[in-house]
Amino acid sequence: MKALHLLCLLILGGQSSSACPHPCACHGSQVNCSNRFLTSSNLSSIFPAGTAELHLHNNRLTTLPNGFLDKLPALRQVSLHGNPWACDCGVLYLRAWLRRRPGSPSGQPHVNCSSPPHLRGRLVEYLTEEEVLDSCHYWYCDLALASQVILFVFVLVQVALLAAVIVFLRRFERLSMEATRTKEESLTAGEPQSEFVDLPLNNWRS
Fold first, then answer.
1. Per-residue pLDDT tens over the stretch 2-33
2. Helix/strand/coil (H/E/C) assignment for every residue in 11-72
3. Where are the domains of the chain?
4. What is the CATH number of domain 14-136?
5. Which residues touch 59 (CB under 8 Å, ≥6 apart)?
6. Among 37, 93, 86, 35, residue whose Cα is nearest residue 69
7. Which residue has the higher pLDDT, 22 or 110?
8. What is the pLDDT of residue 191?
9. What is the rounded distance in angstroms from the CA atom of residue 4 to the CA atom of residue 123?
């Protein structure tokens, strides 16, 4: 039982910390990470477990990692406006989190899409699932498309080579037949003609 309790503490300890994440400023249960030029790649994943108020506005965030805000059970207020949110598949977690929050916390109405162009200015919370999925862009789709193009080009090259071989073989066969015919004609034309002429038998008798 003690081992299980220790394991739970280790797991929880890996998800939260009492230290203030760099470069944010912490005051009690308030963590202020606004105006820090934070991006989705350098945003800390570890925040104090007792964080009740989190300010992430006016940064360069385009998406939040899955489960990012769920690790803070005491969280009551979050400010996310002023970020260039990319409303593709990566925004699905933020959209779901905003929808299941009771009411609309302060600042949330300003969580707007920055891209793609046809969704710019839309509120993330009110995006439909179809709109988000239509904007998804998977790298393996590009890879599959590139593979199909390469395969198509490879097949075209093989067909072209096969056609060239067939044309070459037919031309070679025609040249061989012409050479054989020319040789036969040369041999026929070069046969010696007989020098003897048949004379009437009467001439011999006289």
1. 454 444 434 444 444 578 999 999 999 999 99
2. HHHHHCECCCCCCCEEECCEEECCCCCCECCCCCCCCECCCCEEECCCCECCCCCCCCHHHC
3. 14-136, 138-182
4. 3.80.10.10
5. 33, 34, 35, 36, 37, 38, 39, 82, 83
6. 93
7. 22
8. 59
9. 43
